[in-house]
Specification:
Layout lengths: L1 E2 L2 E2 L3 E3 L5 E2 L1 H13 L6 E2 L2 H9 L5 E2 L7 H4 L2 E3 L4 E10 L14 E5 L3 H9 L4 E5 L2 H9 L5 E5 H8 L5 E4 L5 E4 L2 E3 L3 H17 L1 H6 L1
Parallel strand pairs: 1-5, 9-10, 9-11
Antiparallel strand pairs: 2-3, 3-4, 6-14, 7-14, 8-11, 8-12, 8-13
Helix pairs in contact: 1-7
């Protein structure tokens, strides 16, 4: 299973440097229901689809938005989480939302719907793309950019232990996350979907989410 190691709370490294997070918990439960063992492979936004297509992983659970464009290359499970895109800035920033981003530099993760969304929503801002969330977050933390954009709960994951930053503005996109499966692998897709439905009806999903 391809998962992220840099995207709290979905996939990240804990204090013991072990991968953990909501996506990993979901995959563990799916594997348990399928009666198989799971091995986690680190992926990033640019590498996750190529690694799936090439057969290096069997599925990807990596905070990935289900889009029509991606659906041309891979298959998706049913939506297992719906997020939205937001902005994070230093607490002393005068930026209160998208309207204040003209001429500002915004960090964003490369190869994501987030990158396309911020360019469309704030065309006069300078969107600077980074390979992963950690690099984008570091750019904001070190004052090299004016803002960081990403999925709300991911930004909250970074903000959790960083009181010098705040969320601003309204959500400006809807991001339905799906588990990626190789094109045409209907058997695995169905098995994943049934497992997700079982997790929901049993209450296990809610426990993992909380």
């Amino acid at each position: 299973a391809g998962v992220k190691f840099d995207t709290p709370p979905f996939g990240f490294l804990d204090e013991k440097n072990e991968p953990t997070g909501f996506d990993l918990d979901i995959v563990r439960k799916i594997a348990e229901k399928l009666g198989v063992k799971v091995e986690f492979v680190k992926v990033t936004s640019p590498t996750r689809v190529p690694l799936l297509v090439s057969g290096n992983v069997d599925l990807i659970a990596a905070s990935m938005t289900h889009t029509r464009e991606r659906d041309k290359t891979i298959d998706f499970s049913i939506t297992y989480y719906t997020g939205g895109q937001s902005l994070m800035v230093p607490t002393d920033s005068k930026v209160t939302g998208l309207k204040d981003l003209d001429g500002k530099e915004v960090a964003v993760q490369q190869g994501t719907t987030l990158e396309k969304n911020i360019v469309a929503a704030a065309p006069k801002a300078k969107a600077t793309a980074f390979n992963d969330y950690n690099s984008a977050w570091l750019a904001l933390a070190q004052g090299r950019v004016d803002a960081l954009t990403g999925s709300l709960n991911v930004l909250q994951g970074f903000q959790k232990n960083s009181p010098k930053f705040k969320m601003v503005g309204e959500l400006f996109s809807i991001e339905p996350f799906g588990i990626g499966i190789r094109q045409g692998d209907a058997e695995l897709r169905d098995a994943v979907n049934f497992a997700l439905q079982d997790l929901w009806t049993s209450g296990e999903y809610t426990a993992l989410y909380r």
